[in-house]
């Protein structure tokens, strides 16, 4: 990722160490629900003295804002330096999402997939029409994403919604281009399923139609179990809602055609369902919340307030990385019959690893054929050179400048 800092100094590429110092407090402060850049009040029960000292040294208000404000902010900046070919929407943050998506696609998935929309909270006015409103979501205002998750809760694919140009970089056939938005989203996300013949997709009535279920099975081999609106059931002949209510709670009626089963049953209200897979009810109840499971991370989400409209999306990327990593950790612990870490403990472990274990990576002594003046002591001459810092330092029985230099 090219990260430009343009506050009171020329353009320069940041060190990985500096980026770690920036992202590390996001995970820590998210656990304790305090401002990322303005409030790092430690909790002594979970913080070590070393972590407290690190946060106070590296994450003051100015440095956090200096690093945070200009993330990928240059209009000319594109992924790998290629000229920008896409419509100019989400261009500031899309390269990071593409990197994240490629990594998520590499995670092995189960055969049950849930597809739904996700809202990234944003109430500002700087994003224009990219900000959406969905009444039945916990975060009603924000950026809309479409995600595909497996039954383990791990998100494997995602799609940024940006209106008419949402599918500008997705290859679609002429038949797929004529589909409504919901069907087009499900088709796009289902194309990246690794074993489509063995997989079942679950989604809600916003996406589902009789034609969608047939097209997915014919073109991709994917089966579906979905709730559906009455006007999208492909002309299935079922009894009316009024007649079903008279039969009482638990009553149902069904009809089938062309390999698709249409079911209507009455619980608190009448519900319609379309399916071409076996075990329609028990499977639906178990697997319809896959996309919602990573929302547990929202209880300790990365606080990413900024005047930059795309900064909440950057915070969502950090949250999704941690949520997916934690779910993989839980899955692996179950296979090893070990107790997994809680989500908050896992976040702190990630933050601890970012600022302690890798800071001295590459700072090893390298013997050189030429001698050079020691960078620490005024009269020292040495053949030992730091592999990372590229400076000569004394390293012998009498002078340990190499150690002293890296501890100052």
TrEMBL record:
Domain (PiggyBac transposable element-derived protein): residue spans on this chain: 84-287
Pfam families for this protein: DDE_Tnp_1_7
Coiled coil: none
CDD domains per record: Bbox1
Protein name: PiggyBac transposable element-derived protein domain-containing protein
Organism of provenance: Denticeps clupeoides
